[in-house]
Design a protein that fits this description.
This protein is α/β, with parallel strands linked by helices. Helix content is about 35%, strand content about 20%. It has a five-stranded parallel beta sheet with strand order 9-10-11-6-12. A four-stranded antiparallel beta sheet has the order 5-4-7-8, with helices on one face. Strands 1-2-3 form a three-stranded parallel beta sheet. Helix 5 (about 55-70) packs antiparallel against helix 7. The model is unreliable at about 145-160 (pLDDT under 50).
Length: about 325
């Protein structure tokens, strides 16, 4: 049996890049290149005399299935580095299914995939059986859904206009290579609020947070205020803004190799006024995720004016303190 860790394969695919590069350039190895027969099987394109006709026939049969079930065609022309976390993991899974033979087991908790994609991957496993691939998938079931948005007790004690806006977005429109990511998007995050940011894979959750942190250059072109100032305005030095933002991101793990625990230790500092948690428990076990969440909650209880945003595909892992919901659809 071949054991596949999507987390490890993702780090191998983009680990040599820098995080902000995904927003600054659409260049680099494309999905089509990454999933080509030569790349998957590590064949020298200048090879002379090699006969791979039998392997290519099987490759095309498998590609037809994974392309259809993982919806790869819209991704083929995009740079690997520009994909979202979930999109990249779909591509990595496809590569494994195109390359390996026999029995494959996905190692980990299925992080990076939303609930709908987990179900479709289970369907994919059944579709691959006639092609000689036994894909073993075992993911824990969700225990609950996110409850209807409501205000916390702290928010009820204070009128909305008494709490300062930490993030303000008005009519944000954002597209990449003709693909619409955000359309007329508006959102305000105030001091002390605890938000859950929801949306399917590729809906723009990480891109949205990059507008806040300044990792995306589009933050200078959009109507986005952070701590009361827009990018480029006097007094809006990026270094000063970032000094007040604590971030924990599964993407940072993939690109920089820094664990979620190490990122959290850096994020929970006295100067932090906004805490961004972008799928921080992506590849953790339930026990590890619960321990991580307890650390976050304890710190937020000690710092009630800090605003926090949590991105998560598994609602059961979100602490009850996070009671406001913003959905990207």
């Amino acid at each position: 049996m071949t054991r596949i860790s999507l987390e490890a394969e993702q780090m191998a695919a983009v680990g040599g890049s820098w995080l902000q590069e995904r927003y600054h350039s659409g260049e680099g190895e494309t999905v089509a290149d990454f999933l080509s027969f030569e790349s998957v099987h590590d064949i020298n394109p200048f090879e002379v005399g090699g006969d791979h006709s039998r392997e290519k026939t099987m490759f095309r049969r498998r590609m037809a299935v994974v392309d259809r079930m993982l919806e790869l065609e819209p991704l083929f022309d995009r740079a690997l580095i520009a994909l979202s976390n979930g999109e990249l993991r779909r591509v990595i899974l496809a590569r494994a299914l195109l390359k390996e033979n026999g029995k494959l087991a996905l190692v980990g908790e299925g992080g990076g995939f939303d609930a709908s994609w987990k179900g479709r991957i289970e369907e994919l496993a059944r579709a691959m059986e006639p092609l000689g691939i036994e894909l073993c998938v075992k993911w824990g079931a969700e225990r609950q859904r996110i409850s209807k948005p409501r205000r916390t007790a702290a928010a009820n004690r204070n009128a909305p206009d008494e709490r300062r806006a930490v993030v303000e977005m008005q009519g944000v429109n954002l597209s990449f290579e003709g693909r619409e990511v955000l359309k007329d998007f508006s959102w305000t995050v105030r001091e002390g609020e605890r938000w859950v940011l929801c949306g399917p894979n590729g809906s723009g959750k990480t891109t949205l947070l990059a507008l806040v942190t300044g990792d995306s250059p589009y933050s200078y072109a959009c109507d986005v205020k952070v701590f009361g100032t827009r990018r480029g305005e006097p007094g809006a030095a990026l270094s000063r803004t970032r000094a007040r933002i604590g971030c924990v991101s599964s993407t940072q793990l993939a690109y920089g190799g820094e664990s979620a625990e190490a990122q959290l230790a850096s994020a929970l500092r006295p100067a932090t006024r906004l805490l961004l948690l972008d799928e921080p428990c992506c590849d953790m076990t339930d026990r590890e995720a619960a321990r991580f969440a307890r650390k976050v909650v304890r710190w937020l209880h000690a710092h009630p004016r800090v605003a926090a945003v949590w991105v998560e595909h598994r609602p059961s892992r979100i602490p009850r303190d996070f009671t406001l919901v913003k959905n990207l659809v």
